Amino acid sequence: MSNKFSWIILTSVLLVFSCDSNQIFDEYKSVPNQWNKDTLISFTMTPPDSTKLYNLFINIRNTNDYKFSNLFLIAEINFPNGKTVKDTLEYQMTKPNGALLGEGFTDIKENKLWYKERVQFDEAGAYTVTIQHVMRNNGEVNGVDNLEGITDVGFRIEPATN
């Protein structure tokens, strides 16, 4: 498949998904070439309604260059009053046969990963979410310095449904 055709399909898919009325916040940051273990990807937002509940997602776009079956992340929410909540997360990224999970018609797959559900943003002000990978090879103590195959990291907020 030619690169030009792949980009046309990718652009079309992105346009369709960008018209999603269910989103409260949806932003992506590109990862140039490799995601360094010390690189924090940050998103700052001010939720619109402090009385409603929201579901939070981490979105990952990856290519066939991603060599692992799972993904370990540290995600941190910094609240306006200074409180911090930090989580270590693990997500399955492939099927048992090694095929990548996620949506997409090209070699780029998009994964919408649950982070937290039914969250209430009850403090006025800006919240910041930071995401960092903490991948390791099996049997090794030191982490993977530069993670290949991740092209974009996103954060999304949707209204929680009853």
Automatic annotation (TrEMBL):
Domain of life: Bacteria
Pfam family, one: GldH_lipo
Record key words, sorted: Lipoprotein
InterPro entries in the record: Motility-assoc_lipoprot_GldH
UniProt-recorded name of the protein: Gliding motility-associated lipoprotein GldH
